[in-house]
Amino acid sequence: MATRSRCCPRSAVARLTLSTPLDVRLLDNGLSVGEALAAFNAAYGEAGGIVSFRGKVRPDGDVKALELSHYEPLTQPGMYDLAHAAKSRFDLDGALVWHRVGVMTPGETIVLVATAARHRRDAFAAADYLMDHLKSAAWFWKREKRSHGWHWVEPREQDHADLERWK
Amino acid sequence: MGVRILFLGPLSDLAGEPEREVPAPLDWAGLLEAVGQKVAEQLVEARVNVACGGKVLADKTALDAHDGDEVALLPPVSGG
Q1: Contact A69, B12 (CB under 8 A)
Q2: Is A152 helix (H, G, I), strand (E, B) or coil?
Q3: Rounded distance between C-alpha atoms, residue A57 and residue A36, angstroms
Q4: Strand, helix or coil for residue A46
Q5: A-chain residues near B79 (CB < 8 A)
Q6: Total structural domains in chain B?
Q7: What is the ipTM of this complex?
Q8: Residue ranges of the domains in chain A?
């Protein structure tokens, strides 16, 4: 069900090219945060500030692996809508919203969000807004593998409270 | 061809399979009957959404799925 989806093909020679002003991807492989942020920085030369957030699989007790599943017809369109909403709500030059699917191990990156704006407050707020919505209002389901097998991860109360802040 | 029901996230464990093919057409009552008691108990909860043909239904009880449609059962999400 997880398919790699890129909005712009990468040529063999060119470095990573982002679609602007919004670059939204579902990735079923590891992602290179350094490469992504360098390309993002290069794409927004006029920005006064760039904020990024990278979410990782928390090395938590006996967690051996984490699996993110999604529903193709809804997940990526939903991420686009979210990125559009962030851009119009905050004064952004652009945003990058990347999310992993599939199986990951502790320490691996699950999500990468970057925002570029003329002024820092818009960039900070938009990254915060994007993450709160990806946590509890995007079409993803998470389960983790512990010593006794796989367990689905329930959404936390705190995630819903975080989301309420934007309403 | 029928209607394909997809059990997303934890619902696949309750259903015992990731998807199931049922005869068309399929309405809300038919869906509750087709998915088994455990999944049906979850489905009636407000926090579980239903999508048909790639669109989340505003009112899942108004489900009206036809031949070739995909009906996705969407439990509460946990991303990031």
Answers
A1: no
A2: strand
A3: 19
A4: coil
A5: 68, 99, 111, 134-136, 138-140, 142
A6: 1
A7: 0.93
A8: 22-164
Give just the sign of the alpha carbon dihedral A37, A130, A98, A152: positive
Q: How far apart are CA A95 and CA A98, in angstroms?
A: 10
- Which homologous superfamily is A22-164 in? Molybdopterin biosynthesis MoaE subunit (3.90.1170.40)
Tell me which chain A residues have a C-beta less than 8 angstroms from the C-beta of B8.
Answer: 69, 71, 141
Joined together, the tokens standing for residue A100 give 């992993």
How far apart are the CA of A13 and the nearest CA of chain B, in angstroms?
Answer: 32
Residue B50 has phi, psi (to 5 degrees) of -130, 130
User: pLDDT by residue (tens digit) across A65-113?
Assistant: 999 999 999 999 999 999 999 999 999 999 999 999 999 999 999 999 9
Model confidence band, residue A14 (pLDDT cutoffs 50, 70, 90): low
Q: Cα separation of A116 and B31, whole Å?
A: 46
Q: Which two tokens stand for residue A160?
A: 């819903």
- With cut-offs at 50, 70 and 90, classify the pLDDT of residue A60: confident
Which percentage of chain A shows pLDDT scores above 90? Answer: 81
Report whether A119 contacts A52 (CB < 8 A).
Answer: no
